[in-house]
User: What shape does this take?
Amino acid sequence: MRREVYLDNNATTPVAPEVVEAMASYWQDRFGNPSSLHRKGVEAERAVRESRATIARLLGVKENEVIFTSGGTEGDNLAIKGVARALRRRGIHIITTKIEHPAVLESCRDLEAEGFRVTYLDVDADGLVTPEAVEAALTPGTILVSIMHVNNELGTILPISEIAERVKRRNPEIVVHSDGVQAIGKTPVDLRGVDLYTISGHKIHAPKGTGALIVREGVRLVPLFSGGGQERGLRSGTENVAGIVALARALELACENLEERLAYFRTLRERFLDGVRRIDRARINSPERSVPTTVNVSFPGIPAEVLLHALEEEGIFASTGAACASRKRRRSHVLEAMRLPPEVIDSSLRFSFSRYTTVEDIEWAVHALQHAVERLAIEASRATLTFTRR
Amino acid sequence: MRHAILVRYDEIGIKGKNRPDFVRRLVANIQRATGLSKEEIQVEWGRIYLHPSGDPQGVCERLSRVFGVKSFSVVLAVPHDLDCMREAAVELARRALARGARTFKIEARRSFKAFPLNSMEINRELGHAVSQALPELRVEVRAPEVVLEVEVRKEGVFLGSERIPGPGGLPVGVAGRALLLLSGGIDSPVAGWMLMKRGVAVDAVYFHSPPYVGEKAKEKVLELGRVLARWRAEALTIYVPHFTEIQVEVSRVTPPPLWTILFRRFMHRVAERIAQTYRYGALATGESLGQVASQTMKNLACVDAATRMLVLRPLVGWDKAEIVRLARQIGTYEISILPYEDCCILFAPRHPETHARLERVEAIEAPLDVPRLVKSALERMEIFSVTERDISVVPSPSA
Assistant: This one.
């Protein structure tokens, strides 16, 4: 079989064999509804309780602070809309950034339509939002600050603990949310001062449709769904028992030996960057302060989508950092927020690694990349006038 | 009393020698589209009756996409017996009443002259029966809410109250076979549909140029093919030649303003070869005059000069808004507006030539090894067979 190298782990990951094993019995044998009063229900309820305990322990929170969701998008929606709607009598001002995931940005837009006021903070050249900038944006009416932990396109690590601390010092009533979907297993997670934290299963080798929102005690939320009152009434709907078990197991895998794994990821990243730097016209967009699993790089003049497909022909799967050079699709709001020149944005690719990425994978990818860029540079030079002027 | 579907077709333009072929084709297409057996289809002079053993609703839904069908009705079929006719008329009137109708009239036609009552008498008899049984319904001759049609024919009596319009046109297949240049855009699927409506059996060719466009662009075209296949009543073949080498070579050797025309000339040449191999009588495109700067009369002439094929352009005089409206009706619009593009921006010149001269185009093309490039596109051609339900790969006899 042809060699395949999957370097699009920020989009989604394969489910780990350990996770499949952990969840397997909950599909057909232990399939009960946790709300049922009989043994089958008790069995399922226990699985959910144990998973909740595991997750709480790994993230350093209390068990009742773990609310299971269907993933990152739901977690972000529940956190942001839930808080805003619960606190609207106290204030209507929300602070977030221009580089958030659409789940956050679109939730904020929905709230604007409901009469809330949202400040979208700019980022600096490194894609960072400083605690000072957040503090400067606070107003007496601010009720919520939502700032992602790790950016999905660049890998930038934002200083959420410091931000939370600043915010709380000014006004402990303000709720702090962070989207941690891209942070788990890629950087140490410290939730001090953070009231709400979104995690997603399929980015850490659990199945799609799994996730959790950490909701600190005392934080009031208006739920999105009405129904049977599961998850402290914050998330009605029969628990996805197998998915919950899978999420807990995947989080265990992501957190064990984290330091060692990060060191391994850093070797991968160094190898990759060494190779990429040797390619003509390469420009690294990921800042120094980013997770070692994400590298965003541009080859100005070569449309990202073309390079993506050329790599695909070699069995390398990556992602366009910014959709394509076409006028139909929007440019990446993240790279635009960094004020990168259009030709850098339109040619940016994102490579993201996982625990299954090997050094050989990286070398193979760099080699293919080198080859593809050389080949396409000729096409691009011919069309340069056409391409860059748009 | 049993249900049947009465299918009417337009007879204008099919008088004389064409008629038997037309009807035979229409019946075959109806059979394929509906999945009915031969026994369930009854062909009479000027009419086709379907006697589905299963659900007539599904059959109706599919009939509404069979070209050549002018209209159809779900009817009750009864023997030549006045009591049976009364019973059926009352039944239909009861259903109309349940749907909220308050006025009706009976409209009988008697082609079977041996039936003892004439149409006026039938109207009177059945009208009376309905009024007696359902006093809430009132006879209203001028503008009734419901017209109860009664056809007394040799093979039986058919009563129906609702004519459902068909798509009209000619049965696919009576007007030959054409090869449609299908891009991912809005226009070309509509052009294909227009030709099918005129009885042309349309298959398609899509020019794929990886890595400059992705798999999703190809997938999108196959999806468009699935929608078109619904109107064809049988599988649509999509030929996917490998266009990359042509694009790279043309852009290497020639000035950007002429690229679009040269690409199209090559597309037509490749399509012509496919047409010769697989017996198509014409090429078809979704071009419309002046639609984009490159679709001018002079440019189209330059493209046509590349082959000796007849090129059909059914949308030539259409506005974009008209094309979009039809694309929505056909069901291709939502697919066409997906963002995956069929031509990479690297090969889209900023200032395309709008008034190409053939002599100049030919001179600029001269250094290119045309036969070799055409061959390169065909050598790596994929062929797909697409139906509404699935997409399958056809083993390609390497051209």
Chain A is about 40% helix and 15% strand.
